[in-house]
Amino acid sequence: MTDTSAPPLNSTSPSAGGDHTPSDAPLAPVVFDVADVDVYYGAFRAVRNVDLKIRQNEITAFIGPSGCGKSTMLRCFDRMNDLIEGCRVEGTLLYHGVDLYDSRIDPVEVRKRIGMVFQKPNPFPKSIFDNVAFGPRLAGMKGDLNEIVERALRRAALWDEVKDRLRKSAMGLSGGQQQRLCIARAIAIDPEVVLMDEPCSALDPIATARIEDLMQEIKTDYTIIIVTHNMQQAARVSDRTAFFTTEVNEESDTRTGLVVEFDQTEKIFSNPADERTENYVTGRFG
Ligand code: ADP
């Protein structure tokens, strides 16, 4: 936080309605409340009018054709777009009721609560231990570092495979192990939310299945948002799915992304409300 009067980032907001969970099922609290968000790169509006409620301990998937703004939208949640010159976010993005883009909010503080795992496993050229210890050291986390590292590696289902080689380079791990290490690194600082941008697209099917299993295991502790090209993956792992698409502006010859439909995953894949969603999930488009 840059300012002591900045709003706290850790309050819990009551659940709000407005989506399609059956009325007898209790709704999990809202973690992110996105209202009418547009994201621009310079003058180019990449996504428009996004409304989403991301709920606690759920896995929310963003699907849709390439270029429709899924990654752009994902980067809004940890303010990674701040690092892209010319990128601008308009509209409201609340985290537990607090405006994430309030000028008093420190993006570094945001990224302590909201971790990110990228498409390509990107371990640091350091030991396995130092990769996981990196965030806790930087954040000055209290507690025994050995225990913190072990806990994160256990949660990421990697401990048994690496416990005898913690001081060896992370670069010697397989792709799937590297990605689980990146998940361990992201969760080592105890974030509330884990953002995943195509986390399996560089992995083989076995490594992919392990990451999917892992997501199911850790969702009791985290709120997860995953961007995936793989519709089957979204159907397998997520509770809710947002289907994005692009609309073409003939005059400016540009494409703008938007959310067509956001609902429970089962509904999106079995009985979508919008014809565009149906065409996409049945493979007729995209
Ligand atoms: P998706 O994740 O759905 O493939 P992206 O969010 O990567 O889509 O991209 C959405 C649109 O924004 C695309 O038109 C893309 O070219 C554009 N875009 C993405 N990143 C940048 C950037 N750093 N600068 C300018 N335009 C960008």
Architecture overview:
By secondary structure, the chain is α/β, with parallel strands linked by helices. It has a single domain, classed as 3-Layer(aba) Sandwich (Rossmann fold). It is 31% helix and 26% strand. It has ten helices and ten strands. The chain has helices at residues 70-76, 107-113, 128-139, 145-155, 159-162, 175-187, 205-218, 231-237, 265-270, 275-281; strands at residues 30-41, 44-55, 59-63, 87-95, 98-99, 114-117, 193-197, 223-227, 240-249, 254-264. Strand 1 (30-41) and strand 2 form a beta hairpin. Helix 3 crosses helix 4, helix 3 runs parallel beside helix 6 (175-187) and helix 4 (145-155) crosses helix 6 (175-187). The protein is globular, with a radius of gyration of 19 Å. It starts with 29 loop residues before the first strand and ends in a 5-residue tail after the last helix. The chain binds adenosine-5'-diphosphate (ADP). Adenosine-5'-diphosphate is lined by residues 41, 46, 64, 66-72, 84, 227, 255, 257.
Question: Given the helix and strand composition, which structural class is it?
Answer: alpha/beta
Mind telling me the CATH superfamily name? P-loop containing nucleotide triphosphate hydrolases
Count of structural domains: 1
**Mean pLDDT metric:** 91
Give me the Rg, rounded.
19 Å
CATH-defined fold name? Rossmann fold
Top-tier CATH class: Alpha Beta
